[in-house]
Amino acid sequence: MSSTLQHFTTPKGVKVTLNTGLFINNEFVPAKDGKTIDTVNPSNGKVITKVSEAGPEDVDRAVAAAEKAFNGVWSKTSGKARSRLMNKFADILETHAEELAQIETLDNGKAISFSRGFDVAELIQCFRYYAGWADKIHGKVIDTEGAFSFTRHEPIGVCGAIIPWNFPLLMLAWKIAPALATGNTVVLKTSELTPLSGLKFASLVAEAGFPPGVINIITGYGPRAGDALSRHMNVGKIAFTGSTNVGRMVMKAAAESNLKKVTLELGGKSPNIIFDDADLDGAVKWAHHGIFFNHGQVCCAGSRVYVQEGVYDEFLKKFNKISRDTKVGDPFDEACFQGPQVSETQYNRIMSYIDHGIKEGAKVTTGGKRHGTEGYFIEPTVFTDVREDMKIMQEEIFGPVVAVSKFKDLDEVIEKAHLTEYGLAAAVFTQNVTKALEVSALLKAGTVWVNCTNQLDYNTPFGGYRQSGFGRENGKYALDNYTQVKTVKVNLTR
Question: What whole-number distance in Å separates Cα of residue 167 and Cα of residue 406?
């Protein structure tokens, strides 16, 4: 084994063996320049281990391996064989599910119940779902005069992927699984903040039987590795999930190189609309989940809650109570709901937003302070008395901070819902089905939840309107991101 092999034990006594190199061509290798990155436990700010930091030369190595694999064995591998490999991989992931969950919680800080019951579970299901599509990628015959015309849905080749730190395993699955199902090879860059679960995932690739170079996973910083991958002339498609500002950089880099295909899943400032006729207890529960799930580190978090004036006071009373009662603390505690923010930088950024909201005149009715004395914990924070032009109402905070505002009627709340540059998601709470469908049609958002929030599934498409990006991940819709359509016309005239 390489010198990048590391051994450590999680706080719950789970022994982990992890290779911290760059996974290229089914091998773990150090970075060409020997650089490494410290990965930090956000619960206490202490370094867990060092991982290799990819630079442009390492991106070249990974892309070359992926290109060789695509042009060689992988392009000749049938959909049936790809499906079998992906299902076998899902079986292997299942046997390592608890270890993956423990690593995810250690490195990211998310509550173990969510790492286990959501992130890892959805990782496995996503691979099983797309394994089912692998032998069903085909074109169609089109009736044309004088010719036999048909289409082929062909893989693009080498696909690049850049994922964020908030859902490391989930975002990895959303990128890699559809790319493999459609016959592509992949170079994926994990976040420098949360690389460990992706590296554990990589260590299982060869065991599943994937040929060398089909899946390559590297860790690095955006300006070096991410930019190199986005610009690479031999990468035919780049998928990015992250902030809108960085998404613009990825798109620019792709355009300045080879005009590669791009999909972007970006930021959000999602409105959560609660009407007078809503099941109020249910709305309170789901509004809490909508903003505080994953510590508020969710692109589609319901960070703007609009409550109709007839139930505003009662909602706010109940919502403040459930927010104050949120179990914050050790993410390895089975009862924990909210662990630490992912990094000191993110912690400071969120606290600065809270300070700015107070200075602009918004009122903190719950939280607003640090939780505990070590690590990056923030109390669930509820603002009221907000204006639509406030910074906390316009910018994505990406933390456990929510603003609650009152509205009078449908026209007013629809106008307020759209006073943002984003359009990723929205939620509507009402017991009137007609109203729910009417409001869902009016909202400019890629996903509208009715009487629930943050319900994400591998088989339903997810993506944004406006500056929340373009393209859809998950479900059948995601297959279009990883294929190109060829028309073949056979002359039938003499």
Answer: 32
Q: Which two tokens stand for residue 314?
A: 């009662």
| pLDDT in single tens digits along all 494 residues of the chain | 346 788 878 887 888 889 999 999 999 999 999 999 999 999 999 999 999 999 999 999 999 999 999 999 999 999 999 999 999 999 999 999 999 999 999 999 999 999 999 999 999 999 999 999 999 999 999 999 999 999 999 999 999 999 999 999 999 999 999 999 999 999 999 999 999 999 999 999 999 999 999 999 999 999 999 999 999 999 999 999 999 999 999 999 999 999 999 999 999 999 999 999 999 999 999 999 999 999 999 999 999 999 999 999 999 999 999 999 999 999 999 999 999 999 999 999 999 999 999 999 999 999 999 999 999 999 999 999 999 999 999 999 999 999 999 999 999 999 999 999 999 999 999 999 999 999 999 999 999 999 999 999 999 999 999 999 999 999 999 999 999 999 999 999 98
Q: 290 is written with which tokens?
A: 């909508």
Which residue type sits at 365? T
At 441, which amino acid appears? A
Q: Where are the alpha helices (DSSP H) in 109-186?
A: 112-114, 121-133, 168-181
Pair of tokens at residue 21? 């190199």
With 0-12 / 13-18 / 19 or more C-beta atoms within 10 angstroms meaning exposed / middle / buried, residue 449 is buried
Please give the structure tokens belonging to residue 363.
Answer: 């009122």
Domain with CATH 3.40.309.10 in the chain: 271-457
Question: Is this model's pTM higher than 0.90 or not?
Answer: yes
Start-end of H helices in 397-469: 410-417, 433-442
Q: Which residues are marked as active site?
A: 265, 299
CA separation for the pair 371, 11 (Å, rounded): 20
What's 5-266+469-486's CATH class?
alpha beta
Fold of 271-457: Aldehyde Dehydrogenase; Chain A, domain 2 (3.40.309)
Residue limits of CATH 3.40.605.10 in the chain: 5-266+469-486
Amino acid identity, position 232: H
Q: DSSP class of residue 157?
A: S
Degrees to nearest 5, angle at CA 244 with 243 and 245: 90
Rounded to whole angstroms, the Cα distance separating 104 from 115 reads 6
473: DSSP letter: B
Cα-based distances in Å from 420 to 242, 271, 365, 389, 415: 18, 10, 24, 9, 10
The answer to whether 20 touches 107, Cβ cutoff 8 Å, is no
* Phi, psi values for residue 34, rounded to 5°: 75, 5
Return the structure tokens found at 306.
């609009």
Residue 83 near residue 134 (C-beta atoms within 8 A): yes
Neighbours of 47 (CB within 10 A): 9
